[in-house]
Amino acid sequence: MSQSKIKRRVGKYEVGRTIGEGTFAKVKFGRNSETGDPVALKILDKDKVLKHKMAEQIKREIATMKLIRHPNVVRLYEVLGSKTKIYIVLEFVTGGELFDKIVNHGRMKEDEARKYFQQLINAVDYCHSRGVFHRDLKPENLLLDASGNLKVSDFGLSALSQQVRDDGLLHTTCGTPNYVAPEVLNDQGYDGSTADLWSCGVILFVLLAGYLPFDDSNLVNLYKKISCAEFTCPPWFSFGAMKLITKILDPNPVTRITIPEILEDEWFKKDYKPPVFDEKEDANLDDVEAVFQDSEEHHVTEKKEEQPTSMNAFELISMSKGLNLGNLFDEQGFKRETRFTSKRPANEIISKIEEAAKPLGFDVQKKNYKMRLENIKAGRKGNLNVATEVFQVAPSLHMVEVRKAKGDTLEFHKFYKNLSTCLDDVVWRTEEDMQETK
User: Fold this and answer.
1) What is the distance, to the nearest Å, from the Cα of residue 379 to the centroid of all Cα atoms in its chain?
2) 371: containing domain
């Protein structure tokens, strides 16, 4: 058998591969072990947060984001804290980045681009109305869900790369240069809402054109072009789209078009569907308070544990599948072991075996994905001991071995017959197995 894999867990979440990385944070794929649902875990280093004096701002924005329930914003479920890390548990969006569509298929038709822009403005408007600004809108932060709807990620969390001074304005130049507003570049302080809107204008241009409005290999020249709003719309832009983009990409934030004005724009309003969603769900902010109070009693447990031992194809071919009692017999009589396959998660298989064994009079001992079942009452050859182990064949397929470790083989057969009845819904049967059962 190949060696067991080490699996990392944070509280109830299994931690998987890295799916994103930045200066202050790393994002990993995770899974809720209780529900099986996928999540994204944004992991922040507490020392870095404290060093940059960002704790209060991050706490405030995380608390606000937890209250936000908008169909076009990635959901923030909860926040966990350990001694050294902050874990932000986010909705895992499966449809990839919006700009993959540009890379793969080129520029969009106007109706399609307008639909995504409408969803982007819906998200930005909603968050701005609650005092949350993105400050770093760019292609990597625009995701698509399974239905093809836009989801803005990292709303409110990009404050990690910002600094706010006493005047209430942001001062740190950050973000992807091509999408950054002129006022962000001149370090005179800027308003988060108007800066976000400029980025939305650049994004709309890219959706319709298939390329950036401001681009230059020389950074100084790029900044000059942005500061003067030096760009040209291609000839295929409609007059309405061109007019709106020109109003958004106004280098003066004071005269730049506002979101209420965009919502009244004729080009924008075509086929516009206001988002329908329920905001009434209560959100508990106790976890946010606990993380930033940093008391040990609220620290989440971080641990590494073994995954089920993996099997290769050659090992699998040599083993039986299906919960057929015939597996318990060979030419010499009763066999001392049998195996079956299951598509259920390993934790669920272990729990089901435990639930089935206890009423049959067995004491259960568990360690990782191995179990030892001992009959409390002694049989003909002492107490019957049964060893079980779950092996991983593939990410969604497990092999379960049930073996007599001690005691009478006939009693083992009787035990397994009773166990098989309880595990009927756990076992994976092929169509061939189903026909044999009939």
Assistant:
1) 51
2) 310-437
Continuous segment of H or E residues that includes residue 429: none
**Rama region for 308: left / alpha / beta (φ>0; ψ in -120 to 50; rest):** beta
For residue 349, what is the domain's CATH number? 3.30.310.80
Q: Are residues 84 and 103 in the same domain?
A: no
CB 12, CB 33: distance < 8 Å: yes
From the first residue on, what is the mean pLDDT of each consecutive set of 10 residues in the chain (438 residues)?
59 83 76 88 81 73 80 89 86 85 86 96 90 80 89 70 43 63 77 88 94 88 91 95 96 94 95 79 69 65 59 47 43 60 85 87 84 81 84 78 80 80 75 47
158 and 196 together in one domain: yes
Same domain as 221, residue 110 = yes
Number of domains in the chain: 3
Q: Which two tokens stand for residue 399?
A: 């092999």
Do both 102 and 79 map to the same domain? Answer: no
CATH number at residue 30: 3.30.200.20
Looking up tokens 């569509």, which residue turns up? 101
9 phi and psi angles, rounded to 5 deg: -130, 145
Q: Are residues 16 and 163 in the same domain?
A: no
CA angle 343, 346, 347 (to 5 degrees): 130
Same domain, yes or no, for 23 and 105? no
What pLDDT is attached to residue 320? 42
Q: What is the pLDDT of residue 326?
A: 42
Q: Is 345 a member of any domain?
A: yes
> 10: closest CA among 66, 88, 62?
88
Q: Has residue 288 been placed in a domain?
A: no
Q: How far is CA 324 from the centre of its chain?
A: 39
User: Quick one: which of 151, 184, 155 has its CA closest to 169?
Assistant: 184
Distance CA 143, CA 95 (A): 7
Q: Are residues 239 and 141 in the same domain?
A: yes
Partnered with residue 7 across adjacent β-strands are: 305
Contact (Cβ atoms closer than 8 angstroms) between residue 306 and residue 11: no
Pairing between strand 85-91 and 38-45?
Answer: antiparallel
pTM score of the predicted model: 0.62
- 382-394 vs 309-310, strand pairing mode: parallel
In a domain, 100, yes or no: yes
In a domain, 162, yes or no: yes
What positions carry a catalytic annotation? 136
Query: Is-contact 427 356, C-beta < 8 A?
Result: no
Q: Left (φ > 0), alpha (ψ -120 to 50) or beta: where does 168 sit?
A: left
Residues 311, 244: Cα–Cα separation, whole Å: 59
